[in-house]
Amino acid sequence: MKRLIQWLVVVLFIALLFGVWTARSAMRVAVGYSAKQVCSAVFVSGLPEEFVLDRDVLPNMAILGPLLGSLNVHTDRAAGVVSASLLGVSAQAVHLSGRGCSLNATGPVVAQLTLVKEGPESPGVPAELSQAVEAAFAEPSPATGSRNTLALLVATNGELRLEQYVSPVTQQTRLQGWSMNKSLMSTWVGIQTQKGELDSAQTLNVLLADDPEAPELDPGLTLLHLLQMESGLDFVEVYGPGSDVTKMLYTAPAMWQVPAGKGQAYAPGQHFSYSSGDTAFASYLWQRSLDEPYEDWIAREFTAPLGVDSLVAEADASGVQVGSSYAYLTARDWLLAGQLWLDAWHGRSTLLSQEWLRDSVSARPSDPQGQYGRGFWLNTDGVAFEGLPDNLFYAGGHAGQFVVVIPEWEMVVVRLGLTESGVSTGVHDFLIALAGLRASGIASE
């Protein structure tokens, strides 16, 4: 009996340690997420702190249960800093000059928000689409959570046809694309590849041969494997305390090192597994190919040619752009990115080649469902949007971010929001409504 009691004590002690470790891991993620999201909302998007807390932070941190009441977030507008704390665990996000907000970073901190210039007058909502737009912004049953549609835009033949926002969001508000940054990263790698500055088909061991911090990787692993989510790295895209992706986004100073150090679970090119780690690693490799600060490269090679003036691409604490998650643009500028992809698909872009874009929106053998290409989601056999064209492709992100490109309709649709987990974004229904109303002129003129 005495030995049994001793074993029970040991087991209980181990369980207690595990519980404490799990709780602290959850708290580190909670304070990191809270500080980062509020900092970017206030200093990059120009949104009220209360708005982002109510619509973003608190719903996403509800997993904390009774601990949520102890989460404290403080914004120092004069210093450009947001801090968050929870039972002795804390994090700080700072607004850096030209690079938006970063967790626990150092650098030239600025308090002022760089405003976006007001653009041409909005076309509003065509009468024939008013019902579909109303449905897209409508909230479902309160019991299921909030849809929180913030912006909805449609362009056909390069012309803005429909634009609607919900206050306090306006046409001048930068909004987070989350994983739509992956589509941007694929585009930026494509541009560097076309310029001959980066060999995206080269193995990573060769690309990193002069990097003392690089681990030994599978000899067949390439940059294309990373962009196509078929690296085979043992990185799991599960959002929870201590998981790979939350550790990467909210605790790692150099995010790319988390996936790079995981080792192989599969041979490269053999298995599709959606992974923010793959794109974070790809971003590091893309940035190594530049001979200047990445924001200068983006300004010259991407935003200036497109006429985009709002893009803010944020970095981790090591200074590497978080290519998986942290790009902010106005809804109109997200639309311009979609127009670039549409033009490239048709072979009429001087910025991005038709070959690169078509390859990027082609299904990979590693993905039997045909749902992903190279930084873009696909609609192979209606896998994403049943009843809509198979060649539809889109950039997609957490909480209902979409830039949908429909080549045969010459159409780009942008939907941005803060949709809670498990709640329909309403995008499929809206696209079906567009399909039904194309004869009215919005999609065909």
TrEMBL record:
Transmembrane segments: none
Hydrolase recorded as keyword: yes
Protein name as it appears in the record: Serine hydrolase
Enzyme Commission numbers on file: 3.-.-.-
Any one GO MF annotation of this record: hydrolase activity
Pfam families cross-referenced by the UniProt entry: Beta-lactamase
Domain Beta-lactamase-related: 138-416
Organism annotation: Congregibacter brevis
